[in-house]
From TrEMBL:
Organismal lineage: Eukaryota, Metazoa, Chordata, Craniata, Vertebrata
Domain of life: Eukaryota
Region (Disordered): 685-705, 724-754
Organism: Chelydra serpentina
Bias (Polar residues) ranges: 686-705
Pfam families, sorted: SAPS (PF04499)
MF-aspect GO terms: protein phosphatase binding; protein phosphatase regulator activity
Protein name: Protein phosphatase 6 regulatory subunit 2
GO cellular component, one term: nucleus
Length: 784
């Protein structure tokens, strides 16, 4: 036992605290100080919460350590100080959150000139964030009194810790009314507009990137909390500002007016893509089909689309003339003019806009011929699968457009080709006179010549492969596009219009397409659906198949286990498995217990019914007996041998007399295993072993007495009937002093063999539950 050896020693922190001149650094050198603090060691907390100790802890996380210190231990004390301040101990939280002097020391960290030390900035952000969550009202009131707080945070936005602090103010404030006050405060400070202004070509890349990420996170957080807190009628002011047309227009102005840089365009496009998000997806650009029912869909505000529409020409121009990039070396060689991240994000934005199925935007894209330009890039950059995927999404969106003008794209995207961020619902917009859906599909098949370009690209690829070249990298997406067209012809919202376009193709082109669909595309789909690895065992045995078929599938197992878990344990639960309480009791108290259940075993033998094997059995016995007959004298009979066969075969109480009756007698010919077989007479009695040779064949002495009328060794098998005698399990335990009762319980039946010189005597002792067979000759029985 541990306490026997006094191993439960006190912490070394307590020993240090007993010293009068102990310092904070000495305590922080101890490894278990955090454990003792979280365990709320009273002496330690009282020491830490002293004013000078708290000030020293806050100073450690807000001031740079001396430069001449060893780098390995330079940030040891600031890290430990941050862990102590954020240990979520109420006494420390109350002291830090309620003391304005300490909060001012903490706040002064923002006055440092950029760039901030990223590690110290993370300590500061973590400490302030913990106070916002635990001492919300006090800290929010303190920060709102600081007029420069928002400006200082945005000043240091290039440090990611400041971005985290800003998001904590938006997401970690409770209750809801106080959160709404914070949002209004941030909106009055024009946080959104000031973040948008940071996305300009003149700003540092880190500042642009963090500002863009902050705005994207604000959009997602605001939408999620708006769905969760539906009882609040007041809209989120930050989200409203972000979705306004003015904000979108200002963002696009910063992206395209002036010098265009790839970083600015990419960061600004990411914000637009987030605004166009209608459903959060697990995989970028693809919906998770297993969680569609659990995702929340959002409505795209028409102001966003109105703000983007005038700038579609800038995105089209971006696809034509992107920011200059130097050539890069790839695995397939040197790429002189890379596609670039800016053009890739432009393609992503076009795909997202097409999925909104907005008539005015569809019309503008047709006017600009943007889809034709995207197809040109698709076939030019044959190894850029990121681009191929976005072009595929654009074509899928066009093919899934509804023929009903103004209908939302929600129902259109229920098709299995549904892609790109999910469903979009837009408000009714003013559209041109033409049907935008028809214009877009017409543009795709007639102006862009989609089918002809698919056929030409396929032929070029086949030619390259025939010459020993590599298969082009866009062939997989090209196959999916061709399948989408074929499926839309068979079933789809634009089925009729697509079929008409194909019929209007020139005869040679239509023939090529039909041949391509029936032969080339079908063979390609067949190859693509072949399992790369067989799901069956290469060398399966019958045992393996039996094992696999013996077990249900996993779903059935889970269902069965669930049903087993929810069943109730009732009083008769054990009885359901065929047991009762008596069988679990001590059997020593009841001597009859072992026989109680045996007495319930019933053998129903009807002596009047002939067994179907009786005639065959008798014929077999006669044949064997005729073959074994011999004049040799039999061996002198063996002395009487008794054998206890037990009492388990008896069913009912023994009758008072042994008078033979026809009804209820057993026909011994039915018991073939105990009589004759191909090897001759068989018996389990020791008598039989003495009268047979080592091979189990009957000796000649016995064969001498066999007669033709006797089909077996014993006439009893076919001619003699013995009474069915059973023991009464309740007879045991009777008085041994009454001799007459003992004799009445013993029944003897004599059975003679065919020759009459040998007799089998059956003695049944019902009281002792024993049956004894005895074989004796006539002299032993006193018959002369």
């Amino acid at each position: 036992m541990f306490w026997k050896f006094d191993l439960n020693t006190t912490s070394h922190v307590d020993k240090l605290l007993d010293k009068e001149d102990v310092t904070l650094h000495e305590l922080m050198d101890e490894d278990d100080i955090l454990q003792e603090c979280k365990a709320q060691n009273r002496k330690l907390l009282d020491f830490i919460c002293q004013q000078h100790c708290m000030e020293e802890l806050v100073s450690l996380i807000t001031h740079e350590p001396p430069v001449d210190m060893d780098e390995k231990v330079r940030f040891k004390y600031p890290n430990t100080a941050c862990e102590l301040l954020t240990s979520d101990v109420p006494q420390i939280n109350d002291k830090l959150g309620g003391d304005e002097t300490l909060l001012n020391i903490l706040y002064d960290f923002l006055d440092h000139e950029p760039p901030l030390n990223p590690l110290l900035a993370s300590f500061f952000s973590k400490t302030i964030g913990n106070l916002i969550a635990r001492k919300t009202e006090q800290v929010i009131a303190f920060l709102r009194k600081k007029d420069q707080f928002i400006s200082l945070v945005l000043k240091h936005i290039d440090t990611s810790a400041m971005m985290d602090l800003l998001l904590r103010l938006i997401s970690c404030v409770e209750p809801a009314p106080l959160r709404q006050e914070v949002l209004n405060w941030l909106n009055e400070a024009k946080v959104i507009q000031r973040l948008v202004e940071l996305i300009q070509w003149s700003q540092d890349e880190d500042r642009q990137s963090n500002a863009s990420q902050t705005l994207c996170d604000i959009i997602r957080l605001s939408r999620d909390q708006g769905n969760q807190l539906q009882e609040i009628s007041e809209p989120d002011p930050l989200l409203t500002a972000l979705e306004s047309q003015e904000c979108v227009e200002q963002l696009l102005k910063n992206m395209f007016d002036g010098d265009q840089t790839e970083n600015c365009i990419v960061n600004g496009t990411q914000i637009l893509l987030t605004l166009l998000e209608t459903r959060r997806s697990g995989v970028e650009g693809l919906m998770d089909s297993f969680s569609q029912g659990f995702e929340r869909s959002y409505t795209v505000n028409s102001s966003i689309l109105h703000g983007i529409e005038p700038r579609l020409k800038d995105f089209h121009q971006l696809l034509l003339n992107p920011p200059k990039k130097t050539s890069i070396l790839t695995t397939i060689g040197v790429l002189e003019e890379p596609l670039g991240n800016a053009r890739l994000h432009g393609a992503r934005l076009i795909a997202a806009l097409l999925h909104t199925n907005t008539p005015s935007i569809n019309y503008e894209l047709c006017r600009l011929n943007t889809m034709d330009l995207l197809l040109d890039l698709f076939f030019k950059y044959t190894w850029n699968n990121f681009l191929h995927f976005q072009v595929e999404l654009c074509i899928a969106a066009i093919l899934l457009h509804s023929v009903h003008e103004g209908k939302s794209a929600t129902n259109d995207l229920e098709n299995k080709e549904e892609v790109l961020n999910g469903n979009v619902t837009t408000e009714n917009l003013k559209t041109p006179d033409h049907s935008p859906e028809n214009i877009m599909v017409t543009h795709l098949f007639q102006k862009c010549c989609l089918l002809q370009r698919i056929l030409d690209a396929w032929e070029v690829n086949d030619k390259i492969q025939a010459e020993g070249g590599m298969r082009r990298g866009n062939m997989g997406h090209l196959t999916r596009i061709a399948n989408a067209v074929v499926q839309n012809m068979e079933k789809g919202p634009m089925q009729t219009q697509t079929s008409e376009f194909i019929k209007e193709l020139p005869e040679d082109c239509r023939g090529r397409w039909e041949s391509f669909v029936e032969e080339t595309l079908r063979e390609t789909n067949r190859k693509n659906t072949v399992d790369l690895v067989s799901t069956h065992h290469l060398h399966s045995s019958s045992e393996d198949e039996d094992i696999e078929s013996a077990f249900p599938n996993e779903l059935s197992l889970q269902q069965a286990f669930s049903e087993y878990q929810i069943q109730q344990m009732t009083a008769n639960f054990v009885d359901q498995f065929g047991f009762n309480d008596e069988e679990f009791a001590d059997q020593d108290d009841n001597i009859n217990a072992p026989f109680d259940r045996i007495a319930e075993i019933n053998f129903n033998i009807d002596a009047d019914d002939d067994s179907p094997n009786a005639s065959l059995f008798e014929a077999c016995c006669n044949e064997r007996i005729q073959h074994k007959r011999s004049p040799v004298n039999s061996k002198p009979p063996a002395p009487c041998v008794a054998m206890d066969v037990g009492s388990s075969v008896w069913d009912s109480a023994a009758p008072e007399t042994a008078t033979p009756e026809e009804k209820g007698w057993a026909k011994f010919t039915d018991f073939q295993p105990f009589c004759c077989s191909e090897s001759g007479p068989r018996c389990s009695s020791p008598v039989d072993t003495e009268s047979s040779d080592s091979e189990g064949n009957p000796k000649q002495g016995q064969d001498k007495n066999f007669s033709a009328a006797s089909p077996c060794v014993w006439n009893v098998c076919v001619a003699r009937k013995a009474p069915l005698v059973a023991s009464d399990s309740s007879s045991s335990g009777g008085s041994d002093s009454e001799e007459e009762e003992d004799k009445a319980d013993i029944v003897t039946e004599t059975i003679s063999t065919g020759s009459g010189q040998e007799t089998i005597k059956l003695t049944v002792d019902a009281k002792n539950e024993k049956a004894v067979f005895t074989r004796c000759d006539r002299k032993q029985l006193g018959m002369g």
